[in-house]
Amino acid sequence: MPAMKGPETIQQTKHPADGQLPGASVIWDLPTRLFHWILALAFGTSVYTGYTGGFTQMEIHLASGQLILWLVTFRLIWGFVGHYWSRFSSFLSGPSAIKTYLRHLATGEGSQPAPGHNPLGGLSVIAMLTLLAIQAVTGLFSNDDIMTEGPLAHLISHEASRQLTEVHALCAALLMILVFLHLTAVFWYVFWRRHPLIRSMVTGRQTVSLPVAAPEYRLSWLRLVLALATATLLTYGLINWL
Q1: For residue 119, which of 185, 32, 29 has the smallest C-alpha distance?
Q2: Cα(162)–Cα(176) distance, rounded to whole angstroms?
Q3: What pTM was estimated for this model as a whole?
Q4: What residues have CB less than 8 Å from 62, skipping those under 6 apart?
Q5: Which of 139, 99, 136 is nearest to 120 (CA)?
Q6: By CB neighbour count within 10 A (0-12 exposed, 13-18 middle, 19+ buried), where does 166 fall?
Q7: Which of 136, 164, 200, 242 gets the highest tally of CB atoms within 10 A of its CB?
Q8: Alpha-carbon separation of residue 139 from 45, 64, 69, 161 (angstroms)
Q9: DSSP secondary structure string, the chain?
Q10: How far apart are CA 149 and CA 146, in angstroms?
């Protein structure tokens, strides 16, 4: 994780001639990029195995669900201690900011995307993390009434487990809708607005035309190790110590 010096020490690097940052700046730090792609793989695996069923598939489903729980826990921690653009404080916006963004989007204002998440994208991140957390936790208490149950299903009644299983399935459906909307927005930006969002999430670099304060990117391995260790401890403790 990059070491941050605080907002007051962030240097302004806007080019005086064209209003752009000199070259592409690192917006998405390595942990955030890895989180994004591993989560996509884990969620796809969970959806496939959950709907195909079978003993082996459900074993994989349980493992991928626990991986998602660990990933979400890490991302919540990283949202407070990560690189500037990975922090929740950098992209959480109020209704007025979202309204302004939608108006600019409708009128086609601005040739380049804002650095990091736009106001609507930030809202979708929170919605997705919330639903993923609910789905992963309810999965720990779920059962399919056939051969598979979550590792914590024995702590509650069978009826309560069935109700949480229904919530688990509902969250899965809502997440697939949210993922569809996310992919639609990404492809719209890539093919219609010509913004290389997918490449940015691979390289971490993004060129922006808005005058922004560009924090220096420097990964702090100490913060990263502590965040990973904390997420691991919390996830393992929830699954094995209850």
Answers
A1: 185
A2: 21
A3: 0.84
A4: 139, 148, 150, 151
A5: 99
A6: exposed
A7: 136
A8: 14, 11, 10, 9
A9: -BPP--GGGPPB---TTTSS-SS-EE-S-HHHHHHHHHHHHHHHHHHHHHHH--HHHHHHHHHHHHHHHHHHHHHHHHHHHS-GGGSHHHH---HHHHHHHHHHHHHT--SSPPSS--HHHHHHHHHHHHHHHHHHHHHHH-B-SSS-B-TTGGGS-HHHHHHHHHHHHHHHHHHHHHHHHHHHHHHIIIIIS---HHHHHHH-EE---S--B-PPP-B-HHHHHHHHHHHHHHHHHHHH--
A10: 9
Closest CA to 104 of 133, 4, 93, 218: 93
Q: Which residue in this structure is represented by tokens 């949202």?
A: 79
Structure-block tokens of residue 3: 């070491």
Distance in angstroms (rounded) separating the CA atoms of residues 8 and 12: 11
8 A C-beta contact, residue 84 and residue 91: no
**pLDDT mean values, one per 10 residues, the chain (242 residues):** 38 34 70 97 96 91 97 97 90 82 71 72 93 97 89 94 96 96 88 82 76 66 96 95 74
Res 188: pLDDT: 85
CB 87 within 8 A of CB 27: no
Q: Which residues are within 8 A (CB) of 231 and not within 5 positions of it... i.e. 6 or more apart?
A: 70, 73, 74, 77
Q: Are 27 and 204 in contact (CB under 8 A)?
A: yes
Q: Write down the residue that tokens 């390289």 correspond to.
A: 203
